[in-house]
Design brief:
214 residues, alpha+beta, Urease, subunit C, domain 1, 2 domains, 8-stranded mixed sheet, 12 strands, 29% helix
Length: 214
Amino acid sequence: MLTIHTADLLVPGAGCAPLPGGAVAVDGDRIAALGPYEEVAAAYPRARVRRWPGVLTPGLVRGGAAEFLEAAYHPDPREADALGTEPVTGEALTALGMTDARWGESARRGVQRLLRGGVTAVVGPFTRPETRTAVARSGMALLSEASEASEASEASEGAATGAGFAGTLAPGARADFAVFDVLAEDATPVTLAEAGARSCVATVLGGRLLHRRR
């Protein structure tokens, strides 16, 4: 079913003019159209409409994803009493006696954590097959070098830190984007990456709504 996503502000990408009340029409895994909500809705009158608060932007690139997914253990919620909810690193990680199976479970939870922060592309390479599998199954774009992340962010403010927009929203492009409940002036890659799951209300990957804040 064709779906229209609309928010208070649409930021199509780095260097693009923001559009108040903008909308993105998604058909399958592709963007069919974007522009003012009234125009998009008129072009697709039978589309389902999802309305979001805040700013709709391209998804974010996560630099340092290998360290995040392969040098840290992301605890199962059932382990919260013993391990807490934040990633376990350093000596505490060594003490867990990690197995391949446990690394695979950790990678899947780590990918979910990234999706909750509006991330749709990660920078590799990854050394563990379990991590590569988790990333591939999520549908996230995999960038093999940091230089590719900078290119994808289109020299945005966050390029130097590995945080950037993963491309630009345009008709025909893959429907990868996120919505953040922030003010317009905070819609920069660095600010959005720092806010993470605190402000991300939705993440769409290949047209699929993979995260929705309740």
